């Protein structure tokens, strides 16, 4: 769920990276160590996908776990292709730069559009997640305004939107950046808490065998798996800020191995606990009277609130960039744009309050595009490999074909599910 901007230690000097901001300028001080880059990369791959991964496994069945590792390997390889693209031209600093070098302005526009759309929908998913979990903690909550009753998830989505609103007005997001940089820690806490519930709560345990394979659920499972590996837009920033660039491949490998281990562990634990009854967010299955459950739930609630402002900041900056020069730096304009963005995401969250299906749509339509199809396509064009018939070319073309198939089928499935539940 994975996606937030660069952590800022000063006004415009990125020091760390959380989730996937690809729009802020990369660090010009190439002093980030191997371990620092590793932590940033692991943070980028650690997001809200950890909550829906058991649901993904339950939807596809045990054998679909193979697809999780397959997508992880493909995403790792496409990450290496991004590195190779950057090695071709030292002027490449961001992900849109790669699209520009490969396909000109159309390529830059395509990459930027996919990035901003993904950020917007993930921010919307945060609101849905907050509404679902708060409604689970405080069921049957209702208030009356002007004689009209409002309650449940919708009420909490609106309240969270109001709480978040002041954070998007801030000029200095450094404090929120450090809070939201806890992606790895939050994921570890949630996994340990859920495991603790199963181990020490006799009413749960690891008792469910589950299904071996569910063909009808494969598109949704693949889409949710892909959502977990959508950090590619920040890889150029990681690469540019690294002290020893030749070690970047090793950093990526370590990040993908550990993140995949975490996702697989959570998927297996959650599926063994609740089987086909597992919710789109596993926190909704947990008994709320247990301390371990409360730790997992409150950890889930805190992170999205901190990440939201960082998520929409690149979108706000992009929209301000479209304005006439005399209006770009006016604080009231920035506040107006940010406020409008929050209100629009609240409306979308109220209209489409389906976390799993929205996440599945993001994974199929945007994550697969940004993390698999675009890196492969850009590399073929930039390297000129598309003119050569070899094992690598065939392999990359196969990956692109599979990505297109998964994207189309997964997007169709997600849209049908959303429409059916409206």
UniProtKB/TrEMBL annotation:
It is a multi-pass membrane protein. The chain crosses the membrane at residues 32-56, 62-82, 109-129, 149-168, 175-198, 218-239, 251-275, 295-319, 331-355, 361-382, 394-415. It is found in: Membrane. One of its GO terms (molecular function) is L-amino acid transmembrane transporter activity. Residues 31-414 form the Amino acid transporter transmembrane domain. Keywords: Amino-acid transport, Membrane, Transmembrane, Transmembrane helix, Transport. The keyword Transmembrane helix applies. InterPro entries: AA_transpt_TM. GO terms for cellular component: vacuolar membrane. Pfam families: Aa_trans (PF01490). PANTHER family: AMINO ACID TRANSPORTER (PTHR22950), AMINO ACID TRANSPORTER AVT1I-LIKE (PTHR22950:SF705). This is Amino acid transporter transmembrane domain-containing protein. It comes from Crotalaria pallida.
């Amino acid at each position: 769920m994975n996606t937030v901007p660069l952590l800022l230690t000063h006004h415009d000097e990125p020091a760390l990276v959380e989730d996937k901001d690809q729009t802020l300028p990369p660090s010009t001080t190439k002093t980030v160590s191997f371990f620092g880059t590793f932590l940033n990369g692991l943070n980028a791959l650690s997001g809200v996908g950890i909550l829906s991964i058991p649901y993904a496994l339950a939807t596809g069945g045990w054998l679909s776990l193979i697809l999780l590792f397959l997508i992880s390997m493909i995403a790792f390889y496409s990450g290496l292709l991004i590195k190779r693209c950057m090695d071709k031209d030292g002027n490449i600093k961001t992900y849109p730069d790669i699209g520009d070098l490969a396909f000109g302005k159309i390529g830059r526009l395509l990459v930027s559009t996919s990035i901003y759309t993904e950020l917007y929908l993930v921010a919307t998913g945060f609101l849905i997640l907050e509404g679902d979990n708060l409604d689970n903690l405080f069921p049957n909550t209702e208030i009356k305004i002007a004689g009209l009753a409002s309650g449940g998830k919708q009420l909490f989505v609106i309240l969270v939107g109001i709480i978040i609103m002041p954070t998007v007005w801030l000029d200095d997001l450094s404090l929120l950046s450090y809070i939201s940089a806890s992606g790895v820690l939050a994921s570890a806490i949630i996994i340990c808490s859920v495991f603790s519930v199963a181990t020490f709560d006799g009413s749960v345990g690891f008792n469910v065998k589950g299904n071996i394979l569910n063909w009808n659920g494969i598109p949704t499972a693949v889409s949710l798996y892909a959502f977990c590996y959508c950090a590619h837009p920040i890889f150029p920033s990681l690469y540019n800020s690294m002290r020893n660039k030749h070690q970047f491949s090793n950093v990526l490998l370590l990040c993908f191995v550990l993140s995949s281990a975490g996702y697989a562990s959570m998927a297996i634990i959650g599926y063994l606990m609740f089987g086909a009854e597992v919710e789109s967010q596993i926190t909704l299955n947990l008994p709320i009277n247990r301390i371990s459950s409360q730790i997992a739930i409150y950890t889930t609630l805190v992170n999205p609130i901190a990440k939201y402002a960082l998520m929409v900041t690149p979108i706000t900056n992009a929209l301000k960039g479209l304005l006439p020069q005399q209006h770009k730096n006016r604080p009231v304009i920035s506040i107006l744009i940010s406020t409008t963005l929050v209100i629009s995401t609240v409306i979308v969250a109220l209209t489409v309050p389906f976390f799993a299906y929205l996440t599945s749509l993001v994974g199929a339509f945007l994550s697969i595009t940004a993390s698999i199809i675009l890196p492969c396509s850009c590399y073929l064009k930039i390297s000129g490999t598309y003119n050569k018939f070899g094992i690598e070319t065939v392999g990359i073309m196969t990956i692109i074909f599979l990505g297109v198939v998964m994207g189309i089928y997964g997007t169709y499935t997600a849209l049908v599910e959303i429409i059916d539940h409206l």
